[in-house]
Amino acid sequence: MNLSPTLSTAISNFQLPDPLGFGRVTGPVMFVADYINGAWQAGELMTYEPIALNPAATSLQFAQQCFEGLKAFWVEQDEPALFRPDENAKRMARSAERLCMPEVPHTLFLDGVKAVTQAMKPLIPRRSGESLYLRPMLYGMDTQYPLAGSDNFRFAIVCSPSAAYFAKPISVLVERDACRAAVGGTGDVKAGGNYAGSIQATRRCIERGYDQPLWLDPVERRLIEELSAMNICAIIDGALCSPALNGTILPGITRATLLTLADDLGMPALEQPIDINSLLDDIDSGRCSELFACGTAAIVNPIAVLADGQRITRLQQVDAEAARFKAALLGIQEGRSADSRGWMFNSAE
Amino acid sequence: MNLSPTLSTAISNFQLPDPLGFGRVTGPVMFVADYINGAWQAGELMTYEPIALNPAATSLQFAQQCFEGLKAFWVEQDEPALFRPDENAKRMARSAERLCMPEVPHTLFLDGVKAVTQAMKPLIPRRSGESLYLRPMLYGMDTQYPLAGSDNFRFAIVCSPSAAYFAKPISVLVERDACRAAVGGTGDVKAGGNYAGSIQATRRCIERGYDQPLWLDPVERRLIEELSAMNICAIIDGALCSPALNGTILPGITRATLLTLADDLGMPALEQPIDINSLLDDIDSGRCSELFACGTAAIVNPIAVLADGQRITRLQQVDAEAARFKAALLGIQEGRSADSRGWMFNSAE
Known about the structure:
EC 2.6.1.42 (chains A, B), nine-stranded mixed β-sheet, 9 helices, Aminotrans_IV (chains A, B), aminotransferase (chains A, B), homodimer, 2 domains, 19 strands, alpha+beta, branched-chain-amino-acid transaminase activity (chains A, B), BCAT-like_C (chains A, B), D-amino Acid Aminotransferase, Chain A, domain 1
């Protein structure tokens, strides 16, 4: 891959942090493509730098913005490989449609993530559990005062060489006051607005010594939905259970992957409404043996404690089934296991 | 007021559009103040221009952003006067708190809107119904990959010399599918995310020949809330009625003002839950004689038609009481009536 001298120098001079952590640095490379006058322009690889935005652009006033998260792995493979980037491209297209933005063409999306990955090769961490985290984004660029969308948009991909989101089992706090997204809202797409409202509860939860809030459904407030930045799964009666997609939950790609992998591990997989009170009782009785978080950033991360106000529930088992799922997932992602479902995309092709 | 030569030239060279319309142009002046390392820096008046933002700033990824809308009027007064800017400062403080952003100090907010107004004097339209529309905004400036807020923020004020949002009575379409904000979400503050999800329904509504959707509550989906960019009021049994603030409705400053002005007009004012089906029946029976939109941008705007799917309901009376409220409001805003409540702030003081 031929890079500009500026870009090559930026990459050569870049130092990865130690410890690596999750999202501690932004890599020196970004990809940008503009949608102008109804057409996508050619994308360009460039040095990571601030972008110029109208201060009242729809992305900055009306949150006409969406993002994605995906990873390139380079552990056992000859070339860095992307995990299911086609699913991210599809989800970004759904997010864009919901927010009245143009679809980023599948090929532009894939070319962009591959270009950033290839340029970043000298900086991709290669230990198991580490990867190049990529964050594609789409924003409305035009100023609007009436409530209306933009006509012009920017697609940008930035990246962060990273380890997993959490380094240990996490504790989760049931969020009884705030809700993440309305029925008929934007909860099932990756709109920035879903996250803006989640920062406060996430921060409160961390201040109380927990790692993530567990959101409940916004109508009955009793069905579990997801954590702030990842989905949740439970092992109940020996089956992998994840909350059914109800229109307010983000359909996570790792979540869908685990539901598929359950079959390989000989475990039934269920998507169903999960009542928080039943779940707490099932943990007490042992019917629910294990809980874990899952997501691109989190991978598969065991949950040790589920707290609901003063009721602190400890999981009887931590990281037994979660470890099996994580091993199966990372085995494919890192090139140790056969990729029988065509999930891995070679970034050099 | 001493302006830089660049700013003076930009103002001298600026042409207002004809017709003026609402929000068709951004004035050549903006005000910017940064919050860095836990402290607000001095604000600066500068030429309106794009700002530099990290592409993955929390404002652009997680919609950690909020805005306000207020107006400076210069019709009968000696100096342009701002309408209730203290209320906008308070609401922005509430928005900021909900989104984990620092409060813009009251004095910084007022100094900023006054400075922009004074600099824009040569460009403030002076006919009744016209004004300088000001849009203060607050955004998170730091890049974050985990879900977390920024530590550094920017407060910016841009402006648009404008007429009213609509130039005629509007038709409104009940939105039965999408919802604007969740209970426990951000609907009662001016967060960008509330608006991102509203663009689609607003666009669909316009495509069908209507002007604004009427949002229903996100739980029972039967109580009216607001229009996409303004509140709604009804005249029922001779009283001014507006939907009760329930946590998902934006507490509009014009709405609150009209509820106060009703007393001056000898009309009872009620804030109460309003069921959409009852409202449609009340329009048919004549109990509800009139409907109108209200907001800083819309001022008081009559509604001629309320449509719910195939049921098209015409208001028996259009712009009778609305015209009285509008005259009372504009009388104060434009300096014809006494400002007995201290609502007007002289921008030169």
